[in-house]
Design a protein that fits this description.
Length: about 70
Amino acid sequence: MKRLLLMLLLPLPMGCATSEVQPWQRGYLAKPEMQLNADPRESALQAQIHYSKEASSGGAGAAGGGCGCN
């Protein structure tokens, strides 16, 4: 019983690691290549292609649907 309890509780401290960004690392993270959307125009183009293929719009903050009934 003790062995089972130990096996269940042993992984708990391993999940408490923190990944804090140090001040000298912030310069690297601020580069445009590190952004989620490095090129906003490319993201807009990809969204336009997606909406035209799916025949809908929205889901990214815009209201409306593809049926024209709103």
